[in-house]
Design a protein that fits this description.
Layout lengths: L4 H16 L8 H8 L3 H13 L3 E4 L5 E4 L8 H8 L22 H5 L1 H17 L2 H6 L9 E6 L10 E6 L15
Helix pairs in contact: 1-2, 1-3, 1-4, 2-3
Length: about 180
């Protein structure tokens, strides 16, 4: 499993349509591309994949563009990622045929497949639980503090001897900017 730039950029394009299309007017491909800093051709390719997955609808013509095919609260991040890359979480990690597994040299791969399936199931469940509406509104949980390990050098010790301390930073200040999803 790996999130490619294609999935992230496609998800950002879908969010752009959700945010800028709240009035019901279609969002032009040129506007999506400009706001996301990508070429119009690449934006069109990503939007085509989202349209084929029935996440967006397109309208042709001078006043055309894209709008969500369903309300934002009914479209999940998992829906978008699956539309952009069907192999994001493969269902199997082994290419062997069942009859070949007797002589398989990669038995350790098969032995850990259950781990990857379990992790894949949890990732899928988490991505299915997050909707476009939650992303648009910024209502996802954010941590209140971050603990960072800090390695401190003391002047009395040599350069090879360090002491490790953990310092807890205070609450993260709320973001006032809504970039990159501002309208």
């Amino acid at each position: 499993m790996h999130l490619l730039a294609r999935e992230e950029t496609g998800l950002r394009c879908l969010l752009r349509v959700a945010l800028e299309g709240r009035t019901g007017a279609p969002v032009p491909i040129a506007q999506i591309a400009a706001r996301e800093g990508i070429s119009g051709v690449y934006a069109a390719k990503l939007m085509r994949q989202l349209r084929l997955a029935e996440l967006v609808e397109s309208t042709r013509g001078a006043a055309g563009g894209y709008r969500l095919a369903r309300p934002a609260q009914e479209i999940t991040v998992w829906d978008a990622i699956q539309a952009l890359d069907e192999s994001f979480l493969p269902t199997t990690t082994c290419d062997c045929e069942p009859s070949d597994r007797i002589d398989c040299r990669r038995t350790t791969d098969c032995a850990i497949s259950s781990l990857w399936r379990r992790l894949g199931s949890r990732i899928r469940r988490e991505l299915t639980a997050v909707t476009l509406e939650e992303l648009c509104s910024g209502s996802l949980d954010q941590p209140g503090h971050v603990s960072l390990p800090v390695t401190a050098m003391t002047s009395a010790t040599s350069a090879t001897k360090t002491t490790s301390k953990t310092r807890t930073l205070g609450p993260i200040p709320e973001r006032t900017a809504t970039w990159p999803y501002s309208t």
